[in-house]
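Aim 2 progress. For ATP synthase subunit b, chloroplastic, the working sequence is reproduced below.
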Amino acid sequence: MKNVTDSFLSLGHWPSAGSFGFNTDILATNPINLSVVLGVLIFFGKGVLNDLLDNRKQRILSTIRNSEELRRGAIEQLERARTRLRKVEIEADEFRMNGYSEVEREKENWINATCDTLERLENYKNETLHFEQQRAINQVRQRVFQQALQGALGTLNSCLNSELHFRTIRANIGILGAMEEITD
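Predicted structure tokens for this construct:
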């Protein structure tokens, strides 16, 4: 401190030769320069600095308020989204349970329908087999009957002579005539 005071006192001892020169004593000149600059800055820049700081403070406060409002809005949206999510999860569980039961019902219906179709096909197969058996039996009967008829005709033709043939025809005509008289 003594140096600072001494530097102010030594101002009166400078030679006034009218020459301009540099004071190379750093310790003596820096505090004077700093005090002058700070004094000027405080005097002229105080209002500007206060305005800048007030504007900055207002912007920071408004940003904080906006952030708080946005935060509250985000929290409300989050709560609404959570509520919707719970509802959707409940609905999804219901759909899942209904879907499983629906799938089980469809599966049961499909199995029943398949069993019914198989039963109908089995019945159709049995009916077809029975029909084919009856047709085969009828074909065999017809062949047997045709062969028996041909055999009988062959036997009759070989055994019958024309006299026996005429007598058989007359007897049959007589039988027919008697039947005709009965019906009249």
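The chain is about 90% helix and 0% strand. This observation will guide construct design in the next reporting period.
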